[in-house]
Amino acid sequence: MSTNVENTRPQAEPATVPRVGVAGAGRMGLPIIGHVARKGFTVGVHDTDQGKRDAVQKAGAHWTDDAAALARDSQVVLVCVGYDDQLRQLAAPGGMLSCMGPGAVLVLVSTVKPETVQMLASQARQAGVHVLDAPVCRGGRAADTGTLLTFVGGDEDALQRARPVLAAYSTDIIHTGEPGSAQIAKAANNLVLWACLVADHEAFALAHRYGLDVENLRQALRISSADNDVLRHWGTNEMVWAEDDLAIVADLARDCGISLPQTEVVRTICRELKPRRYDLDAYGR
Q1: What is d(CA 195, CA 69) in angstroms, rounded to the nearest whole number?
Q2: Helical pair 114-126 and 181-209, crossing angle rounded to 10 deg
Q3: Which domains, from first to last, does the chain contain?
Q4: I want to staple 196 with a disulfide (CB 3.0 to 4.6 A). Which of 73, 228, 242, 269 is the partner?
Q5: Average of per-residue pLDDT across 94-112
Q6: For residue range 180-214, what is the model confidence (pLDDT) as tens digits?
Q7: Coil, helix or strand for 148?
Q8: What is the DSSP string of 197-254?
Q9: H helix runs in 147-213, sequence order
Q10: CB contact at 8 A, 23 and 81
């Protein structure tokens, strides 16, 4: 699959899409909802958790219990669910995809398997609906500040139509090719992210055992060739998605017949590290 990674940093654009629907108001979805609403879009939201209604309304969006009506009434629908099987439910009979009108754009913000995106894109095409494969990078901090990086796989014209919505929560939008390609780009991002988290733990555990001031070292490494995002935000990464992210990487590697030995080790370490992350006294013992 060819990938043309061209940084197309979005410029300020007017809110040209009259109605945006959002499925999912979780850790990433809720701040995205707020940013889109503040840009002047009319935003409707559906989530299976009724407890999120107040937060959604405080973010400036309208709550709806009827996912089908939300899909029918929206020109752009953002899907911010957490898991592959939840995304596949969109394609089920009576799911949101079957309710969207011709010309509408379905934006898959979730991090899932490329084949799931390709299946949805194929099914949507038959109904005249465009699918954009649009996972985000930089995590919860960037979601809160509206500074996410969004990889996008899909039709260029559909991307241009949805761009003002994506630009509401993204400072960088990078077109990677066909649907599914953005998931591969996101998997590559996650591979490096979790490898850096493990390397940072090992560097600091070693320095700590030799009595170095770890914070002083961290500040020095930030201006060295060892700089990385985990280092800059040390102590804040919750590792919620590490196992799921690296499982997707492992599946991709298996499917294309490549061995990623470092990533296999990183996955094992992350699994063991999650309950005691940042405890340098415990690392390596």
Answers
A1: 43
A2: 160
A3: 9-178 (3.40.50.720), 185-276 (1.10.1040.10)
A4: 228
A5: 93
A6: 999 999 999 999 999 999 999 999 999 999 999 99
A7: strand
A8: HHHHHHHHHHHHHTT--HHHHHHHHHTSTT--HHHHTTT----TTHHHHHHHHHHHHH
A9: 156-166, 181-209
A10: yes
